[in-house]
Structures are given as structure tokens and as C-alpha cells.
Amino acid sequence: MVDVRRVKLPGVGVLHTFISGDGGKVGVITHRSGHSDLIAFADADEVDDGNKVSLRLDEDEAHTLAELLGGTRITEAISGIDEIPGLSIDWFHVDYEDHIAGQPLGNMASRGLPGVTVVAIVRSDAANPVPAEDFKVFPGDTLVVAGSPEKVAKAFQFYRTGEVKAKTPTTAIPVQDSPPGE
Fold first, then answer.
1. Measured at the alpha carbon of residue 172, what is the angle toward residues 168 and 177, in degrees to the nearest 5?
2. Do 149 and 89 form a contact (C-beta atoms < 8 A)?
């Protein structure tokens, strides 16, 4: 386990540092503005500017780097779930024009689509596991949805449009050989 030190930087944000296995020092300054600075020193004891590498990352770049560094572990954990027949877990990113934006999550079973579960709603850097029906969904949220592939697709359609299209049963129309009365 890596020992991470956390230091609040008043007026700036938070600094997280740790010593790498090869003796280098790695730090991330998370600014209140949303930017992050990734800092690496070749030697933990010699923290001079000559041995320092520093990168300024905007919020999207910081998320991308985090996914690249931790994505393998997440992918490995989820890959076992993907192998369960009949189960699909997918992510729905909520945009401003989506029907669900600004609405409470609700219950898909009451909308005629049982067997679909919102496992979590990710907002910014926080996950809200097993959200209640009255949890309000906002643009920028990501819904983690589980169910059969067909039902997850129908749930996504509802989140986008507000409609759940059920398959209409086909009924046979009786064919008459001659018009009535003949």
C-alpha cells in the first residue's frame, strides 16, 4: 500500500504526495479552479527545480490521466461482470437536452420496464451508489445502469426521450374472401 500524504494549501487547493518505489517523489496539486499540477522529482530528498518535472492539466486532462493510470484495474474488475450471460452494465451520460435532465430518477418498473437498475449516479468525482427514486438527475451526471441488454437500451431511450417503446403485439387481421353481405 502506498502512503499518500495530504496537505491543504489555503487559497490554492490540496497537495497529495507519495514516494515511489524507485525513490522519486510524486505530487498532485488539485487547485480550487479545477486545474491540477502533476509534479515529479527524481529523488525524494533533493527537491530542487533541476530535478523537477511539472505538468499543468485542466480538469478533462486530469480525468484522462487518472483513467489511463487506473483504467486497467477498473476494466479488469468489470470484465468478470461482462461475462455473465444476459447481464449488461452500461453508462448513460446525461446531456442538457435529455428528458431525464433535471428530473428525479424515478422507478423504471413503474414506467413499464422492470428488471433495470441504476447501480450508481456519478456526479463530478463522487459516486452516489443505489440512488433513491427521488434523486434528482442533472446534466453532466453519468448513470450506471444494469439489466438485460434490451432493457438497458430501452432505459436509455427513456432517459433521452421520455418514452418507453414497448413492442406492439402483432395481431392477425382476419381476411375475408368476399365483402360482407355477398
1. 155
2. no
